[in-house]
Specification:
Number of strands: 13
CATH topology of the largest domain: Aspartate Aminotransferase, domain 2
Strand order of the largest sheet: 2-9-8-7-6-3-4-5
Distance between the termini: 27 Å
Oligomer: single chain
CATH architecture of the largest domain: 3-Layer(aba) Sandwich
CATH class of the largest domain: Alpha Beta
Helix content: 40-55%
Strand content: 15-25%
Bound molecules: pyridoxal-5'-phosphate
Largest sheet: 8 strands, mixed
Number of domains: 2
């Protein structure tokens, strides 16, 4: 009998995490109560009650909030606002591959700042700042995609100081921030300096990616300018989705949903770490306290590209390329392990197969 194919490829939520019953009730109520608004065109800022709910959640005025069809969509619009071809932007290395794709589309000059387990190497950042001030630094301070790294408080404080001193924006992308399984939460960059930070969050990893609802909060002038770009692109985001998400949030479901997610995902992270300790002790890997990912640096002499076909063909294990997360080359031994959509048994099995593939390649 052939083995079940296991996928360590995409960072998708677990199907069993979706709040189907609550969401269908929210959908019914939203269409009934706000049908004439949410089946109509509207403002590019989004469905006003949702904008107000987010403003209250984030502790800002409503003119500091822009919603969009997912946060990736907003990264695209922020790119139109900030970047002229050839402009410099900084990113962590590694970083989220789809943001790299969008920055390339905007013809940005992408400068990578090496990432450590406690956040970006800020000495390296200062050396780059001495050469060039970027339009923005794109950062994922909490449970980073793809590495799992989280910034220490000291690095958060120094980073916002640098942004202030040198005069650049911090684009803080925080979809995993609410999913902390242990340890103490650190302030967001936005909380430390709302004048220099545009903070993005998404309901994709909290409710589900299907509704495509994300948002950015920050400086009202930037928000207004980006909202105009959004209007010129699609008039308004999906108000139908936003009405349902609003109704779900307004019914008070989010805190319990987040607790449910933590209870589901924390054992999956633990199972992955235990499996790595057991099966792959000579690899290096991050030990995150939350989020969707951890990352492995494969043992010396083993590249991810050489490993992938062996893992797929001999061990029924799909692995993602590591190099897509490195905008300027590198990452030959980098492997991202998304652990949320697999059970603890599958994770143990997957890591055991990974270790067997490494042995087969030696
Ligand atoms: C860091 C980061 N930003 C943005 C996104 C995209 O989120 P959304 O579904 O809100 O577009 C993801 C999704 O994986 C992500 O990991």
């Amino acid at each position: 009998m052939s083995r079940e194919l296991l996928n360590f490829t995409r960072g998708v939520p677990a199907a069993e995490s979706f709040p189907i019953a609550e969401f269908s009730r929210a959908a019914q109520k939203a269409v009934k109560e706000y049908g004439t608004t949410i089946l109509q065109y509207g403002k590019s800022f989004g469905f006003a009650p949702l904008v107000a709910w987010i403003a209250d959640w984030m502790g800002v005025e409503t003119d500091h909030v822009l919603t969009g069809n997912g946060s990736l969509n907003l990264i695209e619009f922020l790119g139109y606002h900030f970047i002229e071809p050839g402009d410099t932007v900084f990113v962590e290395v590694p970083t989220y591959d789809r943001t790299i794709t969008l920055l390339h589309r905007h013809q940005a000059n992408i400068v990578g700042i090496p990432l450590k387990a406690d956040g970006a190497d800020l000495d390296a950042l200062e050396r780059e700042l001495a050469k060039n001030t970027p339009k923005f630094f794109y950062t994922i301070p909490d449970f980073q995609n793809p590495s799992g790294a989280t910034y220490s408080l000291e690095k958060r404080q120094r980073l916002v100081e640098l942004a202030e001193t040198y005069g650049f924006w911090l684009l803080e992308d925080a979809p995993y921030r609410p999913l902390r399984y242990r340890g103490e939460a650190q302030p967001s960059l936005f909380e430390l300096n709302p004048n220099r930070v545009l903070h993005m969050l998404s309901f994709s990893k909290l409710i589900g990616p299907g509704p495509r609802v994300g948002f950015v909060v920050g400086n009202a002038d930037v928000i207004r300018a980006v909202a105009k770009i959004a209007e010129d692109t699609y008039i308004a985001p999906s108000l139908l989705s936003q009405g349902i998400v609003f109704e779900y949030l307004n019914a008070g479901h989010l805190p319990a949903q987040i607790e449910k997610l933590k209870a589901l995902y924390a054992p999956r992270l633990d199972a992955t770490l235990a499996a790595l300790d057991k099966h792959l002790p000579d690899a290096q890997y991050t030990r995150p306290d939350g989020g969707f990912f951890l990352s492995v640096t494969l043992p010396e002499g083993i590249t991810t590209e050489a490993l992938r076909p062996v893992a797929r063909e001999q061990f029924a294990l799909n692995l993602a390329s590591g190099q897509a997360f490195f905008p300027n080359g590198g990452g030959e031994r980098f492997l991202r392990l998304p652990y949320c959509a697999m059970t603890p048994d599958q994770l143990d099995d997957g890591v055991a197969r990974l270790a067997e593939a490494v042995v087969a390649l030696r």
